[in-house]
Amino acid sequence: MLRRELPAAVAVGGLAFAIYHATLLPGLDFGDTAFLQITTGSSVLTPRDGYPLYFALAAWFSRLIGGELAHALNLVSAAEDALACGFLCLAACELSGSMLAGVASALLFAGSYTFWSQSIIAEVYALHILFVSLSMWLLLRWDAQPTHLHLVAFLGAYALGFGNHLSMILLAPGYALFLLVSASGGWRFVLAPRVWVSGCACALAGGLIYSSSLHSLWLEPLSPIRLSDALRTFWFDLTKADWRATLLFGVPRTLMRDHVSMYVFDLHQQFGWTALVVAALGLVRTISTNWQRAALIIGAYLANFLFALTYNVGDKHVFYMPSHLMVALLVAPGIVLIGDIAARTEAFLQNAQARVALKRLAGPVVALALISYCAVRIHRDYPALDRSDDRRPSHLLEGLTAGLDDRRAILLTDLDWQIHNGLWYFARESRPEVAWTNVRDVLLYAPALINDNLSAGRTVALTTGARSILLAAYGPLIQATPDPAVKVPTITDVVRELTPGTRYVLCVLKPTKEFNLDQADLRSATNALSQGQLEGLPAGDYVVVAGVVGQRPVYVNGEGVPFRRSIDLAGLPVQVRMESWLAADTIRRMGFGHVVAGRHHALIVERGVSFVALDQTGAPLRTGYASSIFAPQPRYLCYR
């Protein structure tokens, strides 16, 4: 059977890779993505860095691919998730017994919003989903053919997955229960010597992946004295216990209803109601045909769902992906059930040939219908998820470091952690001549450092945060003035450059607590856009104003929940998509929304203010950001 399913899985993986490659982020990103791009290839990986298997594979593949490191690592994620789609196809075929149903299930997951967005950037979740889908397929294959070789293959894949992400532990209850209830002999099977010896050997092999991280502790200036001290430090750093303890089960009870609402929104965003109904039918069929497999999928789903629901982080949507995979997996048996129900209607047909044709073709027709549904969704979401022209992080950092080099200037920074990671990579790979450091690292001797560099004829540049820290610490000892070489346009400045008749979209999303909206700038910008015909902005966490410069806006809306709207701007079809749940989302690598104009990805909407001016084809003429990490960064110069 595998010989027949394998070409389908390869085709699905190849199609997924083609889509991800076409929409791939070309280079640098902020946040954790930048951290991974920085750390890959490092000679020493500490337990705090985590993900040793990811870094090992990424370093090997990046050398194989060549070119810019950031682009190579983004491409690695695309390849890993394409493989994950292939293994999901095999698992869905195994679960449903239908090749076409397995293809539909895998394509549905391949085109799901969050999974797609993580497949085009450097992230550890791509490799994590690969191991989730691989281990699920190998376990189902063992169930169909319970040989020791199949069991060892499953145990090895599961243990290897821990080398990338510790959340593989969430699959353990469902996997263990399935082994107990499915194996001949029950619990006695697990205690058989060759089974538990194989399990221990695989666990040991998986643990050895972390040996280099453990060894790195003895390379530090204050190395551990005893092995027990090293193991304690290793576990503390690996699990990031100092901050994770406040996040696990950290969602306040008063916000739980809101987070459940977010999950409902998120689930619909991934698959749509049609596919969710099919998945529910798939669960019914799986329970009726093989309750052990149903328990396996339910256990894996609930463990990941409940963990993500109660995990108080700003990007919890990515932790829902394993549960989304289980939903997509159930779509395959759902297709088979619908096909069976349709085939049973053959009794009502008078023509014998029609009865035979319906019975034979009902299942494939239903599967092809859902494949068509997947194709429509992929075509619809393609422009919004296309990051092939997204160079915003590099452009922001080019502006911040413009005109600086280590012979003539130094830069002292205090930036949002996401931008800081981006600058770390940018200054190492793109602008190695920039001399910079975090101001907190030199705060104790900052006045001497500044005076010595000024005396040597070097410029000392500061970011806004660095300037604030220095003034708070040293007051009048630090003198700084805005750097005239760095332009920081406001939204009003961007708007004033536009000619009357230019199409535009202005989005205002509730900013994070680190940023405040400049209400005066907003009023000035909206007045300039509408020639004073707009009396303020509506209330709501999601606000959109769209129209033509010099005229009354054609669309003004403010809502408390995400929405999608299609607008006609002087004959140009524009779609505004709000793709986030602001009460819980503070980190969105793909942005918090999108503006798609004439199938151009015209604007990635961030929290704060996002603005785009459009030409007649929908291509962006000018964009602007404020009150977010993508807002232009001012720079200051120290003087004596």
Can you offer a commentary on this structure?
This protein has 640 residues and is of the alpha+beta class. It folds into three domains: 2-237 and 251-385, no CATH class; 396-486, no CATH class; 491-632, no CATH class. It is built from 24 helices and 14 strands. It has helices at residues 2-22, 32-39, 52-65, 69-96, 99-110, 113-118, 124-144, 148-161, 172-182, 187-190, 193-208, 211-215, 227-238, 241-244, 256-289, 291-310, 321-344, 352-385, 392-400, 417-429, 446-455, 464-474, 491-496, 519-530, and strands at 409-413, 436-438, 459-463, 479-482, 503-509, 542-548, 555-559, 564-569, 572-578, 593-597, 600-605, 608-614, 620-626, 635-639. The protein has a five-stranded mixed β-sheet. Helix 4 runs antiparallel to helix 5. The radius of gyration is 27 Å and the shape is globular. The chain starts with a helix and ends with a strand. The mean pLDDT is 91.
Q: What structural class should be given to the helix and strand makeup?
A: alpha+beta
Please count the helical segments. 24
Low-confidence stretches: none
Shape: globular
Assign a percent range to the helix content: 40-55%
Mean pLDDT: 91
Strand order of the largest sheet: 2-1-3-14-4
- Annotation, overall tally of beta strands: 14
